[in-house]
Structures are given as structure tokens and as C-alpha cells.
Amino acid sequence: MSSPDLPARHTPLHEVHQALGARLTDFAGWRMPLKYSSELAEHQAVRTSAGLFDLSHMGEIRVRGPQAGALLDHALVGKLSAISPGRAKYSLICDENGGILDDLVTYRLAEDEFLVIANASNVAVVLAALTERAAGFEATVTDETEQTALIAVQGPASSSIIEALLGTDDDRAALSGLRYYGCRPARVAGLDVLLARTGYTGEDGFELYVTADDAVKLWQALETGVQAAGGRPAGLACRDTLRLEAGMPLYGNELSIDTDPYAAGLGRVVQLGKDFVGQDALALAAQDQPARVLTGLTGEGRRAARAGNVVLNSAGTPVGVITSGALSPTLGRPIALAYVDREEAGEGTALHVDVRGTLLPFAVTPFPFYRRAR
Amino acid sequence: MSNPSDRLYTPEHEWVLLTPGSELPDEPVRVGLTTFALDALGDVVYVDLPEAGTHVTAGDACGEVESTKSVSDLYSPATGVVAEVNQAIIDDPALIAADPYGEGWLFTVRPESTAKLLTADEYEPLTA
What we know:
The complex is a heterodimer of chains A (about 375) and B (about 130). Chain A has helices spanning about 15-20, 40-50, 70-75, 125-135, 160-165, 170-175, 215-230, 235-245, 280-285; strands spanning about 10, 25, 30-35, 50-55, 60-65, 85-95, 100-110, 115-120, 140-145, 150-155, 185-190, 190-195, 205-210, 230-235, 290-300, 310, 320-325, 335-340, 350-355, 360-365. In chain A, a hairpin with a 2-residue loop joins strand 19 (about 350-355) and strand 20. Chain A is globular. By secondary structure, chain A is an alpha+beta fold. Chain A has three domains: about 10-60 and about 145-245, Gyrase A, domain 2; about 60-145, Alpha-Beta Plaits; about 290-365, Elongation Factor Tu (Ef-tu), domain 3, CATH 2.40.30.110. Chain B has about 130 residues and is of the alpha+beta class. Chain B has a domain at about 35-115: CATH 2.40.50.100. The N and C termini of chain B lie close together (about 10 Å). Classes of the chains: A alpha+beta (about 375), B alpha+beta (about 130). The interface of A and B includes residues 306 and 326 of A.
């Protein structure tokens, strides 16, 4: 976390945001756009056309060397050496006790080169852990957050927006073959980028990594395309409602050093059949059912449950705690994620949430709450 | 952003349609939220208002305004009985921000007394 006496860092797009009239907020030590106009309109734009996000606060850590894959296999819970160049994988980095230090996406750029994307609030922790765990491996760990801008285009129109900006026939031919969680170097608007078909909104979309020097040019080209498609720049406020509808966990809400991957419903990303930091603790955790599991809830009416609200069973006994909640802009009803006692977490179970003194009915619902049409 | 001078304000960013310097009227008066409050809240998605007939107390919380991210208490600018709630904004909370000093009013109250209220000029510095 940032220290309060340090001035907030600006992304390379700071002046662009100011010119767009963004409402800015401090987030993980960065001054970031919360929204440009209405967060509901921005949310809607991502669901129906496209939203343009500055995510330059995310951490980019490059891992390079003959044993880069082996290092990541040791450092993360997944087997990163098993993915092919041009592919990405969602994984977790845990401590010795199996607690989650961060959730991250790792791109394999070449046989001996990976790009690890850490949450803004966890860059220092991830960097320190990777550096420490690199001892004995023939691999280097470099923080490139400062030199790198990350811009995301998310929404059903994003593929056509990107296609119009691709510089070569090769790039255009490759775009349709670029699968979800695929990545490739490309020329977009005449600029060299790493083009990745990834995102955090539940929509088709792209994340473009570019040098900080080229960020403004890339943003402007993308913004023209996004606006022409009926989309708009979008801030962190709608990013949170979008990811919640898509049932994607947020570090600090659903994930923390005190949660293990099994309770968080992420046991599938843990590959116990290899040596990695946290393996012993997670092997033990895998033998027991977690007491509380991450659970989806939907309510009636329009009043949302919020993080920290207590979940009660039909007998009025506390059985869980909300980690994220909002009125879903797409569904028009309250949705929430909560850690709930396993025996109360069956689909359809009727529960209540204490929303500031009022008990509101919620029902256990599998997430994602929203799934895009394909 | 400028706030109309034909009404009074609470330090918590509600307005009440009381003429500055005049005696309390016999008729119910409208209560709403200022543009400053709405701008800080973000898009309002839900409002919880006192029902008609409820006795509210000046300076006390009498409801809630919920935006996509946060929840704020709503404070009554006056003591009295609530006469009417604005059904239009219950049905479509976006109307509050669309016309905060007009059709976006929240409820009416028949005022018996008020909290310490501010004129538009006195309120303005609180929105800086």
C-alpha cells in the first residue's frame, strides 16, 4: 500500500484523463480515473459496445532466462512452464502457509521469457517474492511497471476496433486466431504493442502493453475507434461492477493472505504435483473441505449488500460475510460475493444479509452472475 | 456549480425549499440533494426515504442514498411530518441527478422547526 505522505504516482495518461474531465481517485498509490461521466453509462458501454481503460497502475514484471519457466513453477501455484509461447495463464502466488499474496496473469512471450502482471497494490510484494524465489535459478526478475503503460479495450466491439488499427496483413490475419488468453506482438496504430486477448470485465476484449512514451498516442487512436463504435473511456468504478457481474475475485476483497485458494474456489489453479512455495500447506488444505467457501448471492429489490455485511441463515445465525456487493447494472438486482459456511452454500439456499440493521433476503446463486452471449 | 438562492441548505448537502429569512410556511416543503452531494456520490441507484406520515427530526438521519459504490445517510433539514415522497425518483433514481433542484426532489415535510440552515452564499464554501 502507498504511504500517505508520498505523492500519488501519475500514469503516462494523466493529462489525457484531466483533459477528459475524469474524476480521479487515489488507488494503491496511483492517481487513477474513477469515472469520466457516469459509471453506469460506462458499465453499459462495456456490455454493449466498448470501454477504454487505463490500467497502467498494474505491475509488469519480466522474468527472463533459461530457467524462467522453472522459476515460475517454483514461485506460483500453477505450472507456467507448461504453457506455450503466445499464451497466458491465470495463477496465484502464495506464501509458505498457502495464503494468497496475489492473483496474477502471466504471459509466455518466448521459451525463456514471461511477463507477470501483478495487482497495483501488490507489485512490491510480488517483486520481492519472485526475486527471493529466483535464488538458484538461471533467471532474472525485472520490474518494468514504470516504463510500461497498459490500456484495455473491453466489450463486444473491441475486436473490430483493434482490427481497424492493425498495421499489417499478418496482424489482421492473426487477430481472428487470437484466442482468449492468447497474446502476440503487434503493430497497433503504428506502435509496437503486446496485444493480449485478456480482461477483467466478462466481455471479449484486449489488453495492450506499450512503452510509457507511446501511451498517449495509443490511447488517442483507440479512443477514436472506441467513440466511433459508440463506446467511451471507462474508469475504475465501472470496472468493479463489471468484474463482480463476471464473478471475478478482487484481491483485497475476495482474496488475501488469510484466504487459501480452496476456500476462494480457485483450487483448480493449484498444481500440487510439483515443488512450489506453499505446496505443503496447500496439500494439507486440499485434503479438507474448507469451512467457508466463496459463494454468489442475489437479492430482490434494489438495495445492495456491501463488503462487511453479515450473512445469516434462516434461523438467524451468522453464517458468512459479504466480500463484494452492488446493485448489478446489467441485471437490475443486487448481487454479492460472500464467504459462507459450506453447509449453507448450496445453490438456492435462502439466506439473509444484515444491511445496516435491515435483514434482506438473498439466495445462493452460482456465479458468474452475467455471462456474455457467444 | 451554483446553488439556487431561493432555498436553504444543510451542511450535509440537502436543500429545503424554505425562503431565506421568512417564517415557516403551513404547507409542506420539498427536500432534495445538492449537485455537490450528487457529484460526490456517483450514480444514485437506490433511495430509502421516510414514508408519508413519518415524523422526522431536524438534523437526524431519515433515510439513505445509495450509489454504485457507497451509501450515505440522508438528514432531514426540518422537524415535522413527511407529507409525500417523490415516487418518480423511487422508480428512476437517475432523475435526482438529472434535475436535482426541480423534479429530482426527494420528499416533502410540513416544517415545525429546522436545524441550523445555510443560505446559498453560506453553503457555497462547503462545496469548494
